[in-house]
Amino acid sequence: MFNRTRIVLIIFVLTALTIGTIITYGEETTTIDNKIVEAYKIVYKLGRMGIDVKNLIDKLNEAQKLIDEQHYDEAEKLIDEVLEDARRLEEQAPSIVFWRDFTKAMTVVCLASIPVLTYLFLPRIYLDMWYKLKRKWVVKK
Fold it and tell me: What is the number of structural domains in the chain?
């Protein structure tokens, strides 16, 4: 009888410890999962705007690997870093998009103007050089 009570007590204690551990990790992982989902949403939004987010995605993938390996503290630090960088990029996004589009437009304008400028100025430059080079020639009668 005494052994049965001892076995039941040991099973009860082990069950309580296991359930307590699962609940603790469950709360921690839901907090981290919420953060990583928020980070992915911001990074996705930035990526759709055309901003380079490759480094942020790499960090988020590494954080997910750390979560899979149950290194929650390191993963949370990495996710917080990604969130900070993503929010900073989100604030700067309109400026980044404007200057990227402006640079592309100016490149197109410069490339499109090359044929027009060549058409207008090449004959004049050629004629001017021809006159300078041929000026000293003498035609004999």
Answer: 1
